[in-house]
Each structure stands twice: as structure tokens, then as C-alpha cells.
UniProtKB/TrEMBL annotation:
This is aspartate transaminase. It comes from Magnetospirillum moscoviense. Keywords: Aminotransferase, Pyridoxal phosphate, Transferase. It catalyses: L-aspartate + 2-oxoglutarate = oxaloacetate + L-glutamate. NCBIfam families: PRK08912.1.
């Protein structure tokens, strides 16, 4: 969709990278680190400064008493996910996931020899069918992949649903890989709760974080895994043969940010709430029906009120090529036979980009 957007000069609300939110102080910190060095391989596990900063961040925001030696730095969160899944899955292990889901999960699990077991979240509020979830657990269940706040549907798991999941993990002696890259991006009072923070879950969870999402610097590709030593050891062995290590200058800047940029982290949800609401109002004005969104960068919308005749792939191609606005078909986040009447729009864009995109959509659909 991004290539199609470029070809047609479309406003790209498909790809999930933020615009106009980069913190200048952190970019200056990167410049200082680049001049100061060093420029050789840092430790495979990450620089001491960044591991200490991540551990302090876990304690400060989530009350998780994490030690620096329980942190491993990776080249982005997708590499962290790959290290977790390759390190923990043996051929034949079953892995429970929730649809719609981030698109890297299934290819990695299948390459590791795992067997995906998919539980569908139910629109429009993306609720959980607890009976369906419990039925997925069995003697071969190795782990659950939990993404909250969720890409693409903006769901934030609440305390009751997390407690229910925690009970199933304990009952079946299973693990959880927790993709929490949007941990600071929840809205409307829907507080993020790390699964790791629940009673009995500390030793069962590997938590994935992302500097790119925390600081709106997705091109930096700095992520991490937080886990107790017995769980982190096999993950680290996989990481060793994936990217091995990450730029020391980037790690230095991110460590500085985690230590000093609390005001930026705390202010970002309000900024993105305003952008989400701006996008939702524009979509409504154009004739679409936005779904609830309580976290992440993404808002899904039902285009059936427009009377559009095709499916979501047809819709997204049409608005990219003919209206000049790019979005992502939500069915792409299902492993087949997903709902085909929703499109996902990214609201982590400038007000000008959102306004221009909504003006184009409104004008296009007004023509009939």
C-alpha cells in the first residue's frame, strides 16, 4: 500500500510511522553520542546504560522490579519478537494468538516449527470470547502472544481479561510473549497493564518494548526484551544469531531519553488522542463509521455505510488510486476469512496530513 501511495501521490495513512512527533532533545543526544563514540560492537545484551535505563523505566511506570541483567537490547521490537519466538518454540509447540494480529507473528512462529492456534477478537469492540480462548489451551500449548495496546484494532486489555488469561497460563504451565510496544499510548482512561505485573506472571512473561514507539523514532530500530534469567537465556541465544547487537550510539541516545524524557512520554497520549479524534471526525464526515480505539496509532472504520460494492482490499486500492488516501485492509491482519469491510487508518500523522486526507475522501465519496 505504501508503494501504491507513492505511485499515486496519496496521503499515506496506511503505514504506521508517526510524523511531527520526534523529540529534538533526543536527536541532539544522538548527535552527541555519534561524536563521542565508541563505534565498535557493544555487548550482545546491550550497553549497561540502556539496560539500566530500561530496568528503571519498568519500575517507574509499571512497578515491575526489574534488574538490568533481566534486560536484553535488540535491533527493534520485531527482532525482539523473533528472538523470543525462535528461542522459546520447539517444532510442534502450539502458540495461541489473537486475531486481528501484527503481521510478523505468524511467519516467525511457522518458521520456528510452531503451530498457531488463533482466537478471534470480536468487532466492533474487539471483545474476547473466554470460552473460545480456554478451549484453545491444551497439552501442547507452549505460549501465548499477547499484544496490548493492540495493532491494528486499538484494543487495550483490561484487568479482568488479563486475570482470566493469567489463570489459563498457570493452569496449563504456559508462557507469554507480551508485545507491549504501545505501552505508553493508551487513551480515554484505558490504562495499560503489563501482564508481567500480575501475581504469578513474572516468571512466565517475556515483555517486548520499543524505543521507536515510545519516542516516535521508528527508524532507530531499538527494542528490548525483559524477562527473568531462565526465560531470557534461550531468547538471547536466538538473538545472537539474528542481529547480535545494536548501534551503541543509538543505545546511548535511547538510554538518555528513558532517563530524562518523562515529560515527553507523559504528554504524547494527549497529542495522539487529539489526532485520533480529528481523524474519526473526518471519517464520519466522509461517510464511514469509525470503531472504538483506545490505544496504538490506528483507527479502523467500517465503510459499509458508503454503499461500496467491493471488499476491504478493493476499498483500500480504490481510495489510494482514485481519492489519493492510503489505508490498510483489516482482513490482512487475519489468517484468512477475516471481516472484509474495515479499513485501518494511522492517526499518528500531522494535522495537515489528516485534514488533507479527509478532505480528499469527503470530496471523492460526495461525487457518488
Amino acid at each position: 500500500m505504501s508503494r501504491l501511495a507513492q505511485a499515486h501521490g496519496a496521503v499515506n495513512l496506511g503505514q504506521g510511522f508517526p510524523e511531527g512527533l520526534e523529540p529534538p532533545a533526543l536527536i541532539s543526544a544522538l548527535a552527541d553520542a555519534a561524536l563521542a563514540g565508541p563505534h565498535q560492537y557493544p555487548s550482545m545484551m546491550g550497553t549497561p546504560a540502556l539496560r539500566e535505563a530500561v530496568a528503571a523505566h519498568e519500575c517507574r511506570y509499571w512497578k515491575n522490579a526489574v534488574r538490568p541483567d533481566e534486560v536484553m537490547v535488540t535491533s527493534g521490537a520485531t527482532e525482539a519478537l523473533a528472538a523470543c519466538l525462535f528461542g522459546l518454540i520447539e517444532p510442534g509447540d502450539e502458540v495461541i494468538l489473537f486475531e486481528p494480529l501484527y503481521d510478523s507473528y505468524l511467519p516467525i512462529i511457522r518458521r520456528a516449527g510452531g503451530v498457531p492456534r488463533l482466537v478471534r477478537l470480536l468487532p466492533p469492540d474487539w471483545g474476547i470470547d473466554r470460552e473460545a480462548l480456554a478451549a484453545m489451551f491444551g497439552p501442547k500449548t507452549k505460549l501465548v502472544v499477547l499484544n496490548s495496546p493492540t495493532n491494528p484494532c486499538g484494543k487495550v486489555w483490561n484487568a479482568d481479561d488479563l486475570a482470566f488469561l493469567a489463570g489459563l497460563l498457570e493452569a496449563h504451565d504456559s508462557l507469554a510473549v507480551c508485545d507491549e510496544v504501545y505501552e505508553h499510548l493508551s487513551y480515554d482512561g484505558h490504562a495499560h497493564i503489563p501482564l508481567m505485573s500480575l501475581p504469578g506472571m513474572r516468571a512466565r512473561c517475556a515483555k517486548v518494548g520499543s524505543a521507536g514507539k515510545i519516542f516516535s523514532l521508528t527508524g532507530w530500530k531499538v527494542g528490548w526484551v525483559v524477562a527473568e534469567a531462565p526465560l531470557l537465556a534461550p531468547i538471547a541465544k536466538a538473538h545472537q544469531f539474528l542481529t547480535f547487537t545494536t548501534s551503541p550510539t543509538l543505545q546511548a541516545a535511547v538510554a538518555r531519553g528513558l532517563d530524562d524524557a518523562g515529560d515527553y512520554i507523559d504528554s504524547l497520549p494527549a497529542v495522539l488522542t487529539a489526532r485520533r479524534d480529528r481523524l474519526a471526525a473526518g471519517l464520519k464526515a466522509a461517510g464511514l463509521a469509525p470503531l472504538p480505539c483506545f490505544g496504538s496509532y490506528f483507527l479502523s472504520a467500517d465503510f459499509r455505510p458508503l454503499g461500496f460494492a467491493g471488499d476491504d482490499r478493493d476499498f483500500c486500492r480504490t481510495i489510494t488510486e482514485q481519492a489519493g488516501v492510503a489505508a490498510i485492509p483489516v482482513s490482512a491482519f487475519f489468517d484468512g476469512n477475516g471481516p472484509d469491510h474495515y479499513a485501518r487508518f494511522c492517526f499518528a500523522k500531522t494535522d495537515q496530513a489528516i485534514d488533507e486526507a479527509m478532505s480528499r475522501l469527503k470530496a471523492f465519496f460526495a461525487k457518488g
